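User: hey, got a sec? need Phospholipid-transporting ATPase folded
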Amino acid sequence: MARTGGRKRDRLRWSKLYTFSCFRTPSTDEAAGPSATNGSAVGGPGFSRIVHCNNSILHRRKPLKYPTNYISTTKYNVLTFLPKAIFEQFRRVANLYFLLTAILSLTPVCPFSPVSMIAPLAFVVGLSMIKEALEDWRRFMQDMKVNNRKVSVHKGDGEFGYRHWEDLCVGDVVRVEKDQFFPADLLLLSSSYEDGICYVETMNLDGETNLKLKRSLEVTLPLEEDDLFKDFRGVIRCEDPNPSLYTFVGNLEYERQVYALDPFQILLRDSKLRNTSFIYGVVIFTGHDSKVMQNSTESPSKRSRIEKKMDMIIYVLFTVLVLISLISSIGFAVRIKLDLPRWWYLQPQNSNKLDDPSRPALSGIFHLITALILYGYLIPISLYVSIEVVKVAQAHFINQDLHMFDEETGNTAQARTSNLNEELGQVHTILSDKTGTLTCNQMDFLKCSIAGVSYGVRSSEVERAAAKQMASGAADHDIHVEDVWENNEDEIQLVEGVTFSVGKTQKSSIKGFSFEDDRLMHGNWTNEPNSSTVLLFFRILALCHTAIPEVNEATGALTYEAESPDEGAFLVAAREFGFEFFKRTQSSVFIREKHTSNGPTEREFKILNLLEFNSKRKRMTVILKDEDNRIVLLCKGADTIIFDRLAKNGRLYEPDTTRHLNEYGEAGLRTLALSYRVLEESEYASWNAEFLQAKTSIGPDRELQLERVADLIEKELILVGATAVEDKLQTGVPQCIDRLAQAGLKIWVLTGDKMETAINIGYACSLLRQGMKRISLSTTAGDQVAQDAQKAAKESLMLQIANGSQMVKLEKDPDAAFALIIDGKALTFALEDDMKHMFLNLAIECASVICCRVSPRQKALVTRLVKEGLGKTTLAIGDGANDVGMIQEADIGVGISGVEGMQAVMASDFSISQFRFLERLLVVHGHWCYKRIAQMICYFFYKNITFGLTIFYFEAFAGFSGQSVYDDWFMLLFNVVLTSLPVISLGVFEQDVSSEICLQFPALYQQGPNNLFFDWYRILGWMGNGLYSSLAIFFLNICIFYDQAIRSGGQTSDMASVGTTMFSCIIWAVNIQIALTMSHFTWIQHLFVWGSIGTWYVFIILYGTALKSRDNYQIMLEVLGPAPLYWAATLLVTAACNIPYLIHISYQRSCSPLDHHVIQEIKYLRKDVEDETMWKRERSKARQRTKIGFTARVDAKIKQIKGRLHKKSPSLTIHTVS
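Assistant: Yep! Here you go:
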């Protein structure tokens, strides 16, 4: 495993090129000692960590015993499972009640045997705990996949070997290879580059796709081979574990010198090594001490809103239970006192304390306990078991849904917990990460403007959608949004004689390049009138960047390792235009120009200076010397920044370029302006001297000086043109966001990326659009500022929020849309207690909310604010470790199972492979699960009230004696066998509409957030239905059988006959009721509903043959079966119970139909086929009015195109570039 000195190292010294981001002054600064700025706090409170490099054994025992690198995201472990799982089960009010009754069943007052009370409770609780254990086991197995990854670790004597991540210790020296994740928080010692530079991708931490540069201390640069670590020793003294991703304070004691450390030397766990062959590092923080794990929170225990409301219903039913039990106990005490002494045949003189006429109050108290147990059927213990079974089945259907199967990764959707299925149908706000969730980090070069001429005939997705919708005459949203992406026509006819050129929409075979225009391709640009400007444009694309070319050894093709996807797309475009960047050295870049007068020519350009892009400068500049020894400055950046720096003679193309930029922006494209300037030798020499002085200065104002000097040279520019790239979102993201918006959901984007990138993504996925009024909240306050400066920044932000709220309030245009954009520093103040509600009130008035540069903890805090401030269901979705906090904080957490690790998935409640699957997860499965569970619970309470109250009526009828009218076996089988399967089939298979209809009518989803099927009106309605049914069943049967002969011999009914008949009526009534409730029947529902009724008759016949049946012996075959009165009573009572519900739903469907009622009727009458106009009209009405999404953006585009059409002759063909 040893790495010998013969291995070639990369020779680029990037510190000579980079200006702002990673330059450090020489070792005099590094050796400033513990008293240096960064190290001043080391050794004090919060800065007590000591790490012995390459001597990890010291950290395995006290006083330096640090946690292992083992991580866990499970809710339980071996020791905590039983207590925590039992606590979870008995958080449910009903389970507490049945625990109490199970205990009381051991006393003489219980009317049932102890086994009949304890066994169901043990079964329910045990089944739920097994389910929890299985779900947590899956989390444990995913944790083990991470913990069992391997990394090369120094074993001693200069030898390295592989070890599992979980076995790493603080102080270990590790070697990480290219494209591997860092296993812990490391101090960078050296890299494959000569000056210790390495590229790091932090997308899992902060969501940014741009690569970050890290640089080791110069003193550790010689540690470049395995065998050099044989005698390596050093001591790191640094800060204690904390969640701050962007700060680090510490120092390194090495070779009797002390060197200050800062974040540029720290490599964080779960970030990835890129563009660098290898690095060596020392482990500083392991496991849950690492910064990414410090940002995570303990796996929460989540309960759905329906389950919480179910507890309130249980309280109501328990109150009713106590009330009727009190009535029963009082009635019993009165009868004991007044009537028992006269009932000589009961031998009152021998009565015990349970029915002692001399102590009626005590007897009443004992009877109260009996009644509480007897009427316990009002509170259904089997409800929880049935819900668990239904939720597991629903989760299985989610897991098996082929429409959410990702062919590229082979992953399916996974319901990692089934407790929250119904919450999917009640989501109000979605909080989404950006990178890896919405985007796939790919840019496509689509159009460009050169010398005032626009090139590129292909259209963006926004343009194609607008054109096709106009052509269909469907401005009222009756077009299938997904059809737009399948349109392959070159031209679309808008009106008679007027066409819109969209270009070919087939996918490009070249990744990053979707440009098509013969005027520039294949060297045809040389025939353009301004060919010299075109040449300069292409050279700027090929030269103004920081990328590194890499040759694929297998194919020989060039690929580019770029800091941003934009840069990569520009280089691919330059190559396709005939300007291939193929080599970079320390001082030069080389390009191969194909279309020259002398044939393909290789050219060398010497790099003099590089002023890189950052979010403040919004531009990048490279100063080169060409083969003619001319010094040329090439600059690309945001159009507003470039235009402000143009010379008077450099604005020739500004009007046309500005028009093109506006058109590109309206088409949803990201734009940059390109410019240049030729420098005189003397001017450059003077400026470079000042620049080098600023670059080597030491002090807090170094960056300000560099920016000032950069401004001196980045002026008097000459505009060349502009680029337009299409930000490639993940497949289906715009359509998904459009449908979610039409379903009435609010969407917030929380990203660690810079504001400009987030805004561009907002435009790409149609959360932002042209014409939206943007409210930007920001502050210039730094991380460490004086108290008065903090106060000023806070007051400034509060004023910005107040002004934004006033702007929204005074807006008179009902179609006006506002977008709120806030950065991380401003968010720090906005989340404080005295301001967070002001911020939230402004945010909910805006159509879009985008939070930029947010830390993982801020994501969680924003999620908490929305969840608690609105009191509505929130869903958080992300793919990286930086999203774990918000995923756990939200009511529902959804993880994207992408290629960048599984941290988000392990912390989530549901996982999907692509953001677009969220649409189906919510709009289809969420809608179904919510309605199924809501109807199921309401029906459960209905049937148990119907059954339980008949017991109370008979007990009162029988003198409050505690006598049940039903046989014990009837009561045991009622919930377990005779009514369980139909209600489970309702919860598993019910569909008010099909999945296709759910997607076509997204407004149906609002039935969930509006809680249409589980509000108190509906709950009390079902309870009232149960009360009415119980009264009808009891009193009709009593009236019918009271003094009527039931047998041919003239015998009247006994208690067993009446009880069996009443029970038959209950079985018929509740099963007919559930049949009326169902909208969707399969053979399974028919089998369960009618099979349950049949099972009752099979049981009573078989039970009647057993001697243990006592009073029910042969009751069906000899007593009730031959009696016409029994069958007539069953039919009459069943009809009486269900006719009122039938009248109610008939009236509702006729006079006040719900949305799904209308759709069901249209589908049943086949109006969707016979009357397409009506069908389209109904579809357009079934969309929530929204100001975001693709549909809203297309509307804006349609208005723009129509405006142009008014200015054109109807006979013209319109070729647009936007």
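Quick note: The first helix runs from residue 27 to 30. Let me know if you need anything else on Phospholipid-transporting ATPase.
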